[in-house]
Amino acid sequence: MKLGDYLAHTSTTLEAFGTAIGVSHSTVQRWATGQTRPRGKKAMEAVAKATRGVVTAADFFDGPAARPGFAEAQAPFHAEELALGLDAEAIAARAVQAAIQAEKERRWVEENRAAIEAWNTWVDHNELPLSHQRMF
């Protein structure tokens, strides 16, 4: 949702919104009318936090819908995250690492499927190598 639409929908004044995020009402007006957009990560995060994630950085850019960044996507959960003492960025980093590892494993199995199947077929016909030496 565009900032101007959000302000109109919530009946929030330029002054009140500017005070909430620490900028002047004229700056909010320029953002709301599309003349300029918030500069820097902190300003974008302040807008997302003040609007509870309804207005994100992607809403200030035209064209194809941009994917929100981590901060914008997590803005609605930020207060609860802090209250529970969680580190969302660390959790996300671990989740991304796990997804990368899982995808690498999936691709490895796919790339080596023929060799794995050939080995399994050989074992089915010939038993495991040195199976006669096993005591179990």
Give the SSE layout.
Blueprint: H1 3-10, H2 14-21, H3 25-33, H4 40-50, H5 70-74, H6 78-84, H7 88-111, H8 113-126
Helix pairs in contact: 1-3, 2-3
Mind explaining what this structure looks like?
The protein is elongated and about 85 Å long. The chain folds into two domains: 3-86, no CATH class; 95-127. The model has no long low-confidence stretch (mean pLDDT 87). The chain is built from eight helices and no strands. With 136 residues, it is mainly α. 63% of the residues lie in helices and 0% in strands. Helix 1 (3-10) packs across helix 3 (25-33). The protein has helices spanning 3-10, 14-21, 25-33, 40-50, 70-74, 78-84, 88-111, 113-126.
Report the order of strands and helices.
Answer: HHHHHHHH
The domain count comes to: 2
Shape annotation:
elongated
Query: What would you call the structural class?
Result: mainly alpha
Descriptive labels:
single chain; 136 residues; mainly alpha; 63% helix; elongated
Describe the structure in brief:
The chain has 136 residues and is an all-alpha fold.
